[in-house]
């Protein structure tokens, strides 16, 4: 019997995939169990959820004890139209990239482990901003497990490789090895493991940095010989500014962002300064919830102007919005 999972369930499931703390995981799992249709087709999934809830409760207790002992937390507020996290080994160029595409001013130095805690920056693109997070380097000997929550909570990973040193391939392998034994993995798309609902995969782009250096091509060939990854590749030099515009466009495309502009019924023009952003496939009701929960609760219908609809058409809350739609919500 098919599971026939509801849109509400899938929405909570996506929130669970991005849960950053044990408390977030437990809350989402309990909501998933509440939203799942109760019939024979979901018996197995219900049992798995109950087992995960039991385990999550234990992890919450462990986390509380760690917090009392002064354990660090890396839960950061989400901002902008999407969150992108930079991962890589020592001197991969994460801080240089953050500095090049945002207004952030991280310390950049030619020695390893300059970045000791996450650094935030906002990358502008057209009329939106995207949050970038620079992170401490990962090596075979050094890995902060608190990074796992940030990876899960991100929409996209930029996995950076240092083509300026012979150790670049070894450092890339170290990053992959550190994540291999965790519930947080990298992939060419974001999803939850169907066989183990606790394992989360985050969409990843491979960013090959320092491509302008003389031996970069030989080091890239060596990397491809020893490591096979199913990630889209992007060649840049953060310091020289090479390939950055192409990388920014690839990030926006990977995030699959849709911008929606709102218009008040008594106004002729929409507010084009601050669009609401959501993932492609989102509906007018999702836009209403972004505006305010009261707007969503009292939603009646909306008029829409866009490229895929007749101007001013009246639609219901399940209308799937397109990029640059103008919506006039009536409640």
From TrEMBL:
Residue stretches making up the G domain: 83-179
Gene3D superfamilies: 3.10.20.30, 6.10.140.1070, P-loop containing nucleotide triphosphate hydrolases (3.40.50.300)
Top-rank taxon, per record: Bacteria
GO molecular function: GTP binding; GTPase activity
InterPro entries: Beta-grasp_dom_sf, DRG, GTP-bd, P-loop_NTPase, TGS, TGS-like
UniProt region (Disordered), positions on chain: 1-20
Name this protein carries in UniProt: GTPase Obg
